């Protein structure tokens, strides 16, 4: 567990609601995977990608459950920008509903996206000078 003040800004944050639960009363893993994909895409767009398709998500292992009322943060970091693809790492942390200062490291994933044009075919990523330095 980490203290909330030691964490940088997330790409996205989501309050988990009852509609996202499984029969055990915790949040469905698939809901978390969907948000991982969204957060990763936001990071990829910062590095020149325009229209993205998800190509791969490396193995995801859940270390802690997520509960209704948890505020879940998705932290991103660029792994690699290729000619037509971007790979992003997403770390997931949950601030517990009973104590927002209690932070659980839920999971992490590495996602690869391909940048595509209007025809949905791979398209070269145009990097900005500030991103290539």
Short description:
This protein has 133 residues and is of the alpha+beta class.
Descriptive report:
There is one protein chain. This protein has 2 helices and 5 strands. It has helices at 29-46, 129-132, and strands spanning 12-15, 52-57, 71-81, 85-95, 103-115. Helix content is 17%, strand content 34%. It has a 5-stranded antiparallel β-sheet, with helices on one face. It is α+β, with helices and mostly antiparallel strands and 133 residues long. The model is unreliable at 1-7 and 129-133 (pLDDT under 50). The protein has a single domain, classed as Roll (Thiol Ester Dehydrase, Chain A).
Main attributes of the structure:
single chain; about 130 residues; alpha+beta; Thiol Ester Dehydrase, Chain A; 5-stranded antiparallel sheet; 2 helices; about 15% helix; elongated
SSE diagram, text form:
Blueprint: E1 12-15, H1 29-46, E2 52-57, E3 71-81, E4 85-95, E5 103-115, H2 129-132
Antiparallel strand pairs: 1-3, 2-5, 3-4, 4-5
Count of alpha and pi helical runs: 2
Strand content: 25-35%
Main beta sheet, described? Answer: 5 strands, antiparallel
- The CATH class turns out to be Alpha Beta
Q: How many structural units, i.e. domains?
A: 1
Classify the helix fraction into a percent range.
10-25%
Looking at the overall shape, the CATH architecture is: Roll
By secondary-structure content and strand pairing, the structural class works out as: alpha+beta
Distance between the termini: 35 Å
Principal-axis shape equals elongated
What's the rounded overall pLDDT mean?
91
